[in-house]
Specification:
3 domains; alpha/beta; 442 residues; binds NADPH dihydro-nicotinamide-adenine-dinucleotide phosphate; EC 1.1.1.3; Alpha-Beta Plaits; Rossmann fold; Dihydrodipicolinate Reductase, domain 2; eleven-stranded mixed sheet; binds the ligand N[C@@H](CC=O)C(=O)O; binds sodium ion; 13 helices; six-stranded parallel sheet
Length: 442
């Protein structure tokens, strides 16, 4: 008895996955029954750090997805195509699929899970969100009876690593990004990390699982970290906050319209006492709030070869365990294999979640203004905010930049639409030169 793996991709995560599969000692005995049968890569002449026979390698990935001897196809090439087509091809050839590809799942999840349900196979994606942190399986199983109120977290290791080093060392953005790439945290194109798109993909997946409906990726509001400056990090610190790129999925009201969700990714001023404020470096954390469980936080390494491979191989093991039970049943009871997917491991949502417009969001804001240093300017700002029902929690004149007074404002909770209207009015004030930054506050 043994289960054959077709590994698509032997880069950062593929290599980590092969390392675990080739070194089963001291791990669960079922691992010894899993064999890396074929490996698909772009360049078979590239030196590899894992010891696999050269005959296992091919550049013909489709041949792996359709190989009748393979039980589980593990897609670790990344990107949209050919990853999507290969996953679908594997499903149509009745292969179970394990993937770390949040970009494909967040865009083509409907198509992929519909095909998987029809074929009676599993598509597992623990590595796609939170790297090595178990969060997909807990949402599908351990927390399944809860009415989820919110899922909020730090789900991109690259940006958290960058923000942490900018805060701790005053490090330069480009230099820290290069380190994150060297360490294997960043996507092949790091724009996806830096502009919040990777976090948006992950949030769409988490929200779909947590709230039991399909989510259109374009409904996720998304801002990245490019506009976060060293000045804002310093001012936030003085005001008692840390800046984090948060992904937030929040059910508006459990009674009025249970499906109306807020879905947003943006830099956020997080109070230093909040549990997410101390999640640093490549670490991710996801805070889930449900009824009746209350708050549960998942914390661990969100990227990198070993942690991500841990999630990939755990998915392989979950499928192998099911296949093994099916095989034993077939042998002992002479049963025919039935293609009915395990209800807690498959995905079968049909309807789309309704998403609340950002203008209706109620939150606090931090804003930094460069103004002429003249009497009454703070009063003018206060009046404009007041004209739009935005009340101020604090106003501080911090210093001077380029000859202008630098004024930082933190509002009380306000409707985003009203806050934006106040900013439009403030932009017309003669005393206001620029508004270099606006960041939401948790
Ligand atoms: N890196 C991380 O920390 C994490 C990554 N992920 C996800 O895991 C997946 C893999 O990421 P990662 O390991 O970092 O990526 P890498 O770029 O390190 O590796 C990609 C691998 O896929 C192969 N490949 C890519 N395109 C093709 C193609 N068209 N045909 C054949 N082979 C191809 C490459 O071949 P060759 O080696 O010959 O170049 C390489 O082996 C992505 O979906 C990513 O989002 C998820 C969580 C964390
Ligand atoms: N590029 C991603 C990798 C994991 O999903 C990140 O930085 O979190
Ligand atoms: Na995970």
């Amino acid at each position: 008895m043994g289960f054959k793996i077709g590994l698509l991709g032997l880069g950062t995560v593929g290599t980590g996955t092969a390392e675990i599969l080739l070194d089963p000692t001291g791990r669960n005995p079922l691992l010894q029954e899993i064999e890396i049968y074929r490996v698909g890569v772009r360049d078979t002449t590239k030196p590899r750090t894992v010891d696999l026979p050269s005959t296992a390698f091919t550049t013909d990935l489709e041949a792996i997805a359709t190989d009748p001897d393979i039980d589980i196809v593990v897609e670790l090439i990344g990107g949209l195509e050919p990853a999507r087509s290969l996953i679908l091809k594997a499903i149509h050839h009745k292969k179970h699929v394990v993937t770390a590809n949040k970009a494909v799942i967040s865009r083509y999840g409907d198509e992929i899970f519909t095909a998987a349900n029809e074929a009676g196979v599993y598509v597992m994606l623990e590595a796609a969100v939170g790297g090595g942190i178990p969060v997909i399986q807990p949402l599908k199983q351990a927390l399944v009876v809860n009415r989820i109120q919110s899922v909020m977290g730090i789900v991109n290791g690259t940006t958290n690593y960058i923000l942490t080093r900018m805060q701790a060392e005053g490090a330069d953005f480009a230099e820290v990004l290069a380190d994150a790439q060297r360490l294997g945290y960043a996507e092949a194109d790091p724009t996806a990390d830096v502009d919040g798109l990777d976090a948006a993909d992950k949030l769409a997946i988490l929200a779909s699982l947590a709230f039991g409906g399909r989510v259109k990726l374009e409904d996720v509001y998304c801002e990245g970290i490019r506009q976060v400056s060293a000045a804002d990090i310093t001012y936030a610190d003085r005001l008692g906050f840390t800046i984090k790129l948060l992904a937030i999925a929040h059910r508006e009201s459990p009674t009025d319209n249970p499906d109306l969700l807020q879905l947003r990714v943006h830099p956020t001023l997080v109070p230093k006492a909040h549990p997410l404020a101390s999640v640093n470096g490549v670490y991710n954390a996801i805070l889930v709030e449900g009824d009746p469980v209350g708050q549960v936080m998942f914390y661990g390494r969100g990227a990198g070869a070993g942690p991500t491979a841990s999630a990939v191989v755990s998915d392989i093991m979950s499928i192998a365990a099911i296949l093994k039970v099916e095989e034993i049943e077939a042998q002992q009871f002479n049963q025919q294999k039935v293609d009915v997917p395990h209800p807690l491991l498959s995905c079968s949502h049909q309807h789309y979640c309704a998403i609340a417009p950002m203008a209706e969001l109620n939150t606090r804001f931090y804003a930094r203004f460069l103004c002429n240093d003249e009497p009454g300017v703070i009063g003018h700002l206060g009046t404009s905010f007041g004209n739009h029902q935005v009340s101020l929690e604090s106003v501080v004149q911090i210093g001077f930049q380029d000859g202008f007074a630098e004024i930082v404002v933190v509002t009380h909770e306000s409707r985003e639409g009203n806050f934006r209207q106040a900013l439009e009015e403030i932009r017309t004030l003669k005393a206001v030169e620029r508004i270099p930054s606006v960041v939401r506050v948790l």
